[in-house]
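G., the chain you wanted modeled:
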Amino acid sequence: MTREHAKPILQPTQDFDWIIGSDEPGAAHRLAHETSWALLDRVRSVADPDVVDRVVGLAANEGIDDIAELWSHADPRSLAGVLWRLYLLRRVAAVNPAATADLFTRGVEVAVTIDPVVAGAAEPVTPGSMVELCDTILRGVYAGDLTAALNRAASYCRLMSLGAAALADDRDAHDDDHAAELTQRSLRYSAFAEELHAAAVRWRDGTLD
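Predicted structure as tokens:
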């Protein structure tokens, strides 16, 4: 493939709470499908660490372009939708790493599953380690076991959801608006966790769109 691949949309943390899918079928769906698979196939076939680093680094760059906009509206059952969610998680961590670390740490504290082990954040959890974890997950998509990377991302989202819910409970008696915001964020992370886990199953079964 010789086609150049554009950078995904970068959005601030607060936008995470209201991203919705597009209901436009047809050409937009096909272009999102083609660009996402072309990018994945090309990077995985080259297996060059420098190329992987550049593709992972798309989340750190500025700018909005048409292809990324298509990805942001893609169905979560598609590769484009999956890649968009992973880039968004990384961008959220980069925009507000301290808050991300707080949510993750609290999620680990209240978790009763193996999600902390699967997510695999470095100890101690720091704002910087959250960005590094998201980068590691993206590298796994492009240069590793993609099923494992998606399951790791799902565990990360479950912990973020648990952390947001726990902090919402703490804030409920003091700041209703903040508690409501955290509850909504918890629901978004929980939805991402389910979507990413389902995508891991579809990739393993060869049914990811």
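The mean pLDDT is 83.

Shout if anything looks off.
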